[in-house]
Design brief:
Elements: H1 3-14, H2 20-40, H3 51-74, H4 79-96, H5 99-105, H6 111-149
């Protein structure tokens, strides 16, 4: 078979198949976020008993909600949600410099616990960035193919 025919068949199959890699990477980012959440709050220190804990919990819930929504949409080649995933990755990186660092400075958590929390946030952000890039690439290929066949 000709390479162009193989490529066309592969692109045509994308119309009927979910984009599962970005979806699974978004779910993995959620898992890393949950691990971060458990790790940061496993210490029972007075530092956490402020209004910041409420804000942190709300941010975590919103992250989980938006990330899951994005995972469901990127599997259907909606590139807009791939950009949302990249935005969530930026949020995860920003979170590194706020709560784990402040808790470490206040000696509410150990340096090992802080390192673990930071690793979870970095892993979550990495999954979101890679998933977003893959989704943008795949949805671009599919949209270009759909334009060539007139759909």
């Amino acid at each position: 078979m000709n390479n162009d025919v193989k490529t066309d068949v592969k692109l045509d199959r994308m119309r009927y198949k979910n984009d599962s890699v970005p979806e699974m990477l978004a779910i993995l980012a959620i898992v890393f976020n949950v691990l971060y959440f458990f790790s940061i709050y496993e210490t029972n220190a007075d530092f956490f008993y402020t209004y910041f804990i409420g804000m942190s919990i709300i941010v975590n819930l919103l992250f989980l909600l938006v990330c899951f929504l994005s995972s469901e949409e990127v599997k259907n080649y909606h590139s807009t949600y791939a950009y949302v995933m990249i935005g969530l990755a930026v949020l995860q990186v920003i979170r590194i410099f706020y709560y784990p660092m402040k808790a470490l400075e206040a000696e509410a958590i150990t340096s090992g616990q802080s390192t673990l929390c930071i690793a979870y946030l970095v892993a979550s952000a990495a999954c979101l960035v890679v998933g977003g890039i893959i989704s943008i690439n795949n949805s671009g290929k599919l949209n270009k193919y759909l334009e060539t066949i007139g759909k």
